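Appendix B. Raw example, untouched.
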Amino acid sequence: MKFYLGRRNTILLVLFVIFAIIAVRLFTIQIIDKQYRETAGNNALKYVTIYPARGRILDRYGNTIVENKITYDIMVTPRQVSEFDTLAICEIFGLEPSFVQERFASYNANDRKIGFGSMPFLKQVSSEQYNAFAEKAFLFPGFDAVARTARVYPVNAGGNLIGYVSEVDRDYIEAHPEYRSGDYAGKTGLERAYEKRLSGEKGYTVYYRDARGRIKGRYEDGALDKEAVAGGDITTTIDAGLQAYGETLMRNKVGSVVAIEPSTGEILTLISSPGIDVSQLAEINKYYKEISENPYNPMFNRTVQSAQPPGSVFKLVNGLIGLQEGVLKRDTRYPCSRGYTFGKIHVGCHGHPSPINLPQSIAMSCNAYYCYVLRSIMDNRKYDNIEEAFNKWRDYVTSFGFGHKLGSDVPYELGGNVPTVNTYNKLHGKGRWKSLSIISLSIGQGELGCTPLHLANLCATIANRGWFYTPHMIKGDGRYPLDSAYTVRNYTMVDTTYFPLIVEGMNMSVYGDGGTSHVAQVPGVNMCGKTGTAQNPHGDDHSVFICFAPRDNPKIAVAAYIENGGFGATWAAPIASLIVEKYLNGEIADGTRKDLETRVKNGYLLNKVPVKKRKK
């Protein structure tokens, strides 16, 4: 039997179903679902944010590098503001009346959007100003304060490696939706790299208001309140005292110093000069324009962002590759008559005895010797052509960490550059280049580019006789174990048995006849070093030096790269050796070492560095 409702009954049934759905929905929202009731009441609720204390940053010995101080944000709820003494509030905070007028003009223009919400009137005022305000708060209805922390720097060093904290902008919020306007986050350095650990979690207290927007008390006796969770402390691998000392040596110079503990890969110092003074970090917005317009670019972290030719220190890599490839032995001798000449090609060198063997070539930093070595690698008959030999050479080089990011926890690390076959096919044409075409690679020039961190890592690799841990700035602890990436040994493609020959040459460079690193001798320390002079088409050559000490069971490996500093022994070697002496001996020895320290500290090289004035 078929049943027909008819048109009228159908319409009534549809209406009944619609009203039933609405009634059930309203009952759910108003009676059952507390969340919807709270959302509907948001206009009557006031959320006061509780900002967590940011985690401290400590050095390797537990000394505080960065801590916090209490500051206050002065908040205002425009709809609760009645007439107040403008001059009085200006006197407390050192404001101009026009500032107050502009603020309230903006609030009035956005009244519908703001509603009964609170807006920041002033940010990060001092405790002294807050106390003065609190005494007269009754004069300023609608104003209150929210406590938060600001950074303090007990050690006057490490501005670039620490980094700064500043208020998040729209772009940051889009990339990190868990942040809100008014929040702060680490933007550079350690503050950025470990933001999640340092930042903690915000809390809040919920109050309810009457129809006139007046606070009447805690909503549901604080049932919805949330406590703030303080950020976690981090213990760095940095030696704060050594960092500060190194920065005094690098004053008025452009370049970098990186020191690593070879046995762990822990970074002891990370100095970029000129750098950001820590006194400017806490008020970065105040100094940002001044810093950004500095022609020497203090925000540029040269330790990981400046990819330059390594110069003669790269001879160590070519020597190791030659040994591994079987085209070089300890007693292989090559001549040098102030350089290497073949046809129209000439690579100059300084005067020294000739012919010389492998350790002597390192000690005396002979350019000609490594021209012969590179050609013997590239022209090795076991390879069918130059491209095959070059690709094998490149594999060796990249196994030392060159040509790619090392994977450190230093933000904005660059990978540098190791050329490819395609590089030279484009430069010379496929099949139209040979070992002589790339002879500059023999002495660390040409298309090679690496950062000071790469060079320090090379030095640590040689100190370890063939392996390295990825350099890092943070120590693990019970709460935050060290990332496994920093606990795995990375071996090069060169057998570890060949490294002692290179170490012998580096030791001779410091102590042997004709060695180029005599200036790096430290009383009571058995030092191994290698000078480098990186050619620079834009001015004086760059001064480069790497060293480690002691020779056996090394405790520190250092790379110094002084832009436009000339020979490696002129500036880089003295600076690196003083760093080693300070770290191992605790002080600089009297006599010639003190004199050297004074010369380095008083050295002024900024006038040698070509800069372009920035447009204001």
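End of appendix B.
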